Amino acid sequence: MTWLWAALAPHPPILVPAVGQGREKAAVHSLAGTKRLTEKISARPNGGRPDLLLILSPHQPYVPGALFLNTAKTLSGGLKRFGAPQAHFTLTTDQEAAAALADHLAQAGLPVAPAAEPDLTPDHATVVPLQLLAPALPEPPPVLVANPIGLTPALALALGRSLAAFQRPGQTAALLASGDLSHRLRPDAPAGYHPDGAAFDHGLMEALATGTAENFLAQWPPHRLEQIGECGYRSALALAGLAGGPLETLSYEGPFGVGYGLAWWSPEED
């Protein structure tokens, strides 16, 4: 399998103009980072469209101690509950790749919980990035959608390393690691404030940029993670494991009290 690209992207519905209704303009750096991301994808071979798009979404079903792997043949849903019914996707799962990946990860000692959940409605972590990346991927390719939240951070990093070794001869792939960072950056944040929130976000973005995710992981034991309120850490660690080195930071900000980071990797840019 040839990896075309991989990226970390946030998933706040407010960034979608049909939802934000102008409020998205407060996230100027994220919007600029998303534009850079679409340009980078489009510049890759075949316009950046892979044969397989693996989406790591923390809003897929949660399975404690395992990676949830969605095996539904088709997945359908959108942002109607956020007031944007036009932001709707029907995705097709590459079921052969799903079975192969589940077997590959099991052999690597990574617990996988395959199950079919065709409803994307609760999963804006999949829908929002796809909507924002539509200029580069107007028609999403076949997908695998998985939730890494059930894994420990160490296993999430191992997941990325296992993805780097995943073999599908003749097939190209891309990884979309969806996740917001600390939800507790300011007193007016939806989850309230914790002083470690900003330290976590800046430390993680630096670790991605320098290829030192394993060192960062050791600095944040479970009790510290609980305090800062995040949903994207394991997605980011899997991305770091796949890249195996530094990523390019495209943007970071927290305009609504939640950290939004965008980062990019492609093999030729190692």
Description:
With 270 residues, the chain is of the alpha/beta class. The protein has a single domain (2-269), classed as LigB-like (Protocatechuate 4,5-dioxygenase, Chain B, 3-Layer(aba) Sandwich), CATH 3.40.830. Helices cover 34% and strands 22% of the residues. It has nine helices and ten strands. It starts with a strand and ends in a 5-residue tail after the last strand.
Topology of helices and strands:
Blueprint: E1 2-9, H1 17-20, H2 28-42, E2 52-56, E3 67-70, E4 74-79, E5 84-92, H3 95-107, E6 112-115, H4 124-132, E7 143-147, H5 153-164, E8 172-178, H6 196-210, H7 213-219, H8 222-228, H9 233-243, E9 248-253, E10 260-265
Helix pairs in contact: 5-9, 6-7
